[in-house]
Amino acid sequence: MSASGTNRPDRGFASRAIHHGYDPASEHGSLTPPLFQTSTYAFESAEAGREMFLGQREGYVYGRTRNPGQSLLEERLASLEGGEAALAVASGMAAISALAWTLLAAGDRVLVNHTLYGNSYALFTRGLSRFGVETTVADFTRPDEVAETIDRLRPRLVYFETPANPTLAVIDIAAIAALARAGGALTVVDNTFATPALQRPLGLGADLVVHSATKFLGGHGDLIAGALIGPKAIVERVRGHGLRYLTGATIAPLSVFLLLRGLKTLELRMERHSASALALARLLRGHPKVASVAYPGLPDHPGHALACRQMDGFGGLVAFELAGGLAAGMRFMNRLALVTRAVSLGDAETLVQHPASMTHSPYSPEERRRHGIGEGLIRLSVGLETLADLEDDILQALEEA
């Protein structure tokens, strides 16, 4: 099959995740795209090298900005998210920071949702302020509040996650993107929790999507990577500035190789993650020792109707609090035998962690209180184990809670 035959936009999600952009004949018949473990590239002539540096000729110059495997990964990610172009980098935070350093300057304003991954929150509310960029926090589940803030501040960027980490609040992408566009701002959505298998923000009006590809996109807990998808002009600007000399956050060739592998099973894995997460959310909600459960797939979740409209599934994350508070939660986590106590998410293994003392410790106690991140909140990243075994492990741990 020729490469052009693999690039048809009418192909299904899984077909594009497996085939898009690659022709085995181009690599001596190798079914799996090769690993390009090189730092630099030879020019066929001095003139060719000069033209590549001037941007007059396509090609590979130096491994910091791109390699052939990375180009394939980026083409595939852009196809899956429905974007013009993509950039793969060394981590999710690298994707966010490279974008911010490229697009923002002293005097610019940013509007972010009050609930973000802890280090994203720290970058926007603490890191950027050192360089004259002002960040304002709002509750993005309240479009009226967002509209008023955009009208008053005229931010350059509007940034949020949905579902949000760790509360799993669902935000109306189309509504927020429309408000941002009317106010002259770019909308950036972190789509790590849902992945393009379940949610495609660009099709709902967002301008740019970022990922911690470490998580569900990779899917096996054996790499660290990030990605940015959106208009080609912006993505290539971030490659030329944000990656090339502002951060130098180059993705490793082996991580590219592993991500291409992970994408092949993404749709199947997200179906399994979502089905098991829904079953465990129902189990937890019905247990007398559980005070509350947050999962978009539950009908009583405040964002359930919205999630049904803008998502194709509800994802693999469940958040809950035990009636006994933090002490009971700690006893519960320590009693788990199959479920692993670890941060991160999206792995084949089910992982459990305590956001207030772990991933969201960059928030102050007051900020966590104000933004709904309870001291007793537990976040469960549901893996791919046999569901009955997960249910048994959770039930026996609840007995000790």
TrEMBL record:
Signal peptide: none
Obligatory cofactor(s): pyridoxal 5'-phosphate
Pfam families per record: Cys_Met_Meta_PP (PF01053)
Keywords: Pyridoxal phosphate
Lineage top rank: taxon: Bacteria
TM stretches of this protein: none
InterPro entries referenced in this protein's UniProt entry, alphabetically: Cys/Met-Metab_PyrdxlP-dep_enz, Cys_met_metab_PP, PyrdxlP-dep_Trfase, PyrdxlP-dep_Trfase_major, PyrdxlP-dep_Trfase_small
CDD domains associated with the record: CGS_like
SUPFAM superfamilies: PLP-dependent transferases
Family indicated by similarity: Belongs to the trans-sulfuration enzymes family.
Alphabetical list of PANTHER family matching this protein: CYSTATHIONINE GAMMA-LYASE-RELATED (PTHR11808:SF85), TRANS-SULFURATION ENZYME FAMILY MEMBER (PTHR11808)
Name the UniProt record assigns to this protein: Trans-sulfuration enzyme family protein
